[in-house]
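Handout, tutorial session.
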Amino acid sequence: MSGAVDLSALKQPPAAPGGAPAASGNHSVTEADFETKVIRRSMQVPVVVALYSQRSPGSVELIRTLERLNADDRGAWDLAAIEAEPNMNIVQALRVQGIPTVIAVAGGQPLADFEGAQPEAQVRQWLDAVMDATAGKLEGDPDGPEPEVEDPRFTAAEDALAEGDITGAEAAYEAILAEEPANEEAKAALRQLRFLTRAQQIDPAVVATADADPANLDAALDAADVELLEQRPEAAFERIIAVIKRTAGDDRTKARTRLLELFELFDQAEPFVVAARRKLATALY
């Protein structure tokens, strides 16, 4: 994979909260700390990035396997366990096609990867190959920027998320915004947290309901949330734009407001966001 993926796009992105992680706190990584825990850290030791989903028992078990092997190897490599759904920018930047996917990063670049749950013996063999390939080749980054000091307010919010305390995490982000109304990191984190809280409560069967009854506005908006949670933003945007095209008045305003909220969950320079904004403008005018 070396040279095939550009990790620079993941430097200092907005925070992206997730649900209760399968990984222990010291291994869990999000978009907020990817640069520090993966890119910079990989200058010193290999970092094994494991993308998983709570919906996939096999991928959760793979995280457990990697944690055991990491403990056995006593710091020879780092584990970065990343829940896919709340960290879609990472998933897209790494061009992940399936969950689970495991990628070794060394010297700031992807080195090797595998997809799918694997037996522990096979994972051990893969890890040994990674360690052999990087032995003596990582010299650190002494001239690079010092890691940023973590803001304890964000740490408190992330700790609450790690413990499954969604209400506490939301309150922590709201407290930051009460002190600093212009804090973009807290705004982004709160937006994504509220989306996840809403979307994870929706029955995925609503997609079929919305397809069968296009006039059902609430079903259409719920279906778009499900599609976005499943990492299909283009489908979610297309669904709401179709609603905007065939509605008027309050219904159109409600659909447009929801679409703009979903846009805000992404980097506005993302091609699929730019394309959807153009389609929205055409639908409106």
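The second record follows below. Compare its token runs with those of the first.
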Amino acid sequence: MPVLFPKKQKLALKELSGAKTYLEHIQCNLKLPAKAIVCPLSSITKFVLSQGNFKKYNCEADIYVDEKKGISYVTGFGIGAPAMGMALEVLIALGVKELILMGIAGSLQPEVLAGDIVVCNGAAADEGLSAHYTADKFLLPSATLTKRLDTALTKAGLDHHTGPTWTTDAIFRETAAEVAFYQKKNILTVEMEASAFFAICAQKKVKAAAAFAISDELYQLQWEPHFGEGLMFQHLHDIYHAAEKALLK
């Protein structure tokens, strides 16, 4: 006897409550600019706030709005696909139409080193959220927004890689066998949000792109952490600037 309701059947059904209904319930009448940068890390917030004139709001995330530029920076919602998914649904219900996800990722390939920048052009969905939005197992970002992000990095003189990621829910259950498997498929990185981010944005018909700074290396089939190193933070700052330029182009 099946224990779970079939996901393929679910995809054609309407939800009982959506983000707009939820916002009505909590009486959140915020209207956001159409452009937003989304970052699970809160550690670069101080830097971001120094780059503009932001007003802070809170609605399932810390939302910083620069009304003059017409862009929001969103953080403080937690790590992983479910936490990001709820915040993302709320942002879209509040009027956001183009979003860039930025953050950190682990490297699966020897040419991708700690501190490097990677523009994500696809995501293998090894998390639980995206299946509630699509039957696809490999999710794609917006080609046009990804190109604008890539161009912004190039014009800034920033070397970067472009390739797909493996999105997993279980950060402490990444195995050598999985890394070797995804290496053979030319997957560049591993992280915890991208496939769900792309799935929700595609289902809601909004544009999405993503880029990461490498925080750890797994390509030797062992874990080499580089969290908190200066180059990683510098390149997160660089990604933010490029994301802003790509969105406001």
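Points raised in discussion: The mean pLDDT is 96.
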